[in-house]
Design brief:
Elements (H helix, E strand, L loop, with lengths): L1 H8 L11 H13 L10 H16 L10 H9 L6 E2 H8 L6 E6 L5 E6 L2 H14 L8 E6 L5 H14 L14 H6 L2
Antiparallel strand pairs: 1-4, 2-3, 2-4
Helix pairs in contact: 1-2, 1-3, 4-7
């Protein structure tokens, strides 16, 4: 079980066969990604989805993710939900200076939205404005950043492309078509 989840989700769960609360949490994440009923328990649908991951692993074609390394892996780790904080706190921490980098909004349902900016603070304020026009707020959302202080716009874009490719088949990714990002924000 843990080995299959490690493959499917990129986790580092101990492969010990013990059902812990943490393991149940990761089962829920897996179920959400597969658009299955989310319970943390392994029923027939979850078992079938896990078998698909196992057979894909044998073929070296993973259904969920492509491997990341180097700067892309560092950025992905920085954007993880475990590093996310309330949006207001993150905005305050940026101050007024222009900082390029990547950002990821996380919802309480496990969905996420990844983007890039040459000026993170300005871009995030634009997102808040868009949300307000959908009658929504960032309340309840969390935000993680990967600051790239000396990066060019092309470098930031290249890193964003790698990360979006990494999550290409992830059902929790809101902005699958980045040109339609305003519509994706409406789904938050």
């Amino acid at each position: 079980m843990q080995d299959t989840l490690n493959t499917a989700l990129g986790t580092t769960l101990a492969v010990d066969g013990v059902m812990t609360n943490s393991l149940r949490q990761w089962i829920r994440v897996f179920q959400r990604r597969c658009r299955l009923p989310v319970s943390g328990f392994i029923g027939p649908d979850t078992e079938t989805a896990l078998r698909r991951v196992r057979s894909d692993r044998e073929q070296r074609e993973f259904e969920f993710e492509r491997e990341l390394s180097g700067a892309a892996l560092t950025a992905e780790n920085a954007l993880a939900v475990t590093n996310a904080k309330p949006v207001e706190l993150v905005l305050k921490s940026l101050g007024k200076q222009k900082i390029p980098g990547l950002y990821r909004f996380h919802t309480s349902t496990g969905k996420f939205y990844t983007g890039k900016a040459v000026d993170l603070r300005r871009r995030l304020v634009q997102h808040m404005w868009c949300l307000s026009h959908f009658g929504k707020t960032a309340r309840g959302m969390k935000l993680a950043l990967h600051l790239m202080k000396d990066a060019t716009e092309a470098q930031v874009r290249a890193l964003e492309k790698k990360i979006n490719e990494h999550h290409k088949n992830d059902n929790n990714r809101l902005n699958r078509v980045t040109e339609l990002e305003v519509l994706a924000l409406n789904e938050i």
